[in-house]
Amino acid sequence: MRFAICDYSGHPFQAQLSRELARRGHAMLHLHFAEFQTPKGRLSVGPEDPQTLAIESVSLDRPFAKYSLFRRRFQEIEIGRRIAKRILSFQPDVVVGCNLPLDTLQRLVSSCQKQGLPFVFWQQDIYSDAIARILTRKFGLVGRLLGIHYKRIERRVLNASSAIVVIADEFISALAKDFGIAVEVAHVIENWAPLDELPPRSKSNAWTVSHGFDSSDVVLYTGTLGLKHDVTKLLAVAQAMLSRPNALLIVTSEGFSADWLAAEVQRIGLPNVRVLPFQSFEDYPDVLGCADILIAILEKDAGEFSVPSKVLSYLCAERAIILSAPENNLASRIVTRCGAGIVVAPDDITGFTRAILRMLDDRAAQRSAAENGRRYAEKSFEIISIGNRFEAILVDATRAGKSENQGR
Prior knowledge:
Rossmann fold, six-stranded parallel β-sheet
């Protein structure tokens, strides 16, 4: 069969799924948005990959206006048109959409409907809820009205989907209550990380040594810093770590918040912070390996529907995790359940910094949390089982689509 997966972000585990489906003999087109600023996965076809796999970027051919609401909306509509054009030229049996902004998503789904192509919505968040929270906070009543508009778009997309894949059980009741989605249409498949591509590495590795971090106690934050992240927490961590002259806070990120953090570090004069750009996925295991402790932050209004994929990668790295996030968030529940580290409430900055300092001082606790996290990843991130579930959903959607088209 011919499957097209469009993961707007270009994250690692979605690309791994396309590789797994191609390995099974399916013709795979894997698309991502070139200008989206985020850590990327392995997005090129290598000699070891199946010949049935194609991985391509779709580009605007101009800078992406991430921080301009008006320009960004029109660019997201345009990128939706370009994605749809490429997918339709591939002539897939079924299309999967993941991490797409709602304006982009609506354009793609509309094109699929016109061509009678089944669409599977791989839903990573309740996007309209997130938009409503952010825009209401920023624009008041106008933002709330925009949130209502985007909820209508998300409802149309959900109802037009042949199947919906969600990442946590909590989505099921929310979809039924807020969007009227039948339970049997939705499938829960928790996110994962590409275990084989993220092996544990020793602290003394090529990347760590080249940056001079191998003799320091390292607290590491990797990945996006966006509206769901209070970057001032990282400053608080750095200031708390000043009492430990051998400790470093390393942040690998890009964008407005990362630039702000770098400027504040320089203004305040914090000698124990290094802000670096996103690192290549080839170097990512070594980057994670440099850490003694891995940290992540998520604000309380992100709630239960947003799962930071960095935490899943952290589990593979066999390092202790300190997470500042709501306790009902899936990432929080995973870290707590498997004993991979410590979860602190997002408004407890003092508790967050204290947890980091305690873990730095307790090597036995670090090792126990690290081993627990890796054990969980080895048990839960097995791609053959995950591929079986996705393959069954896509095959069913293809068959249902063919039956529907024949009945017209």
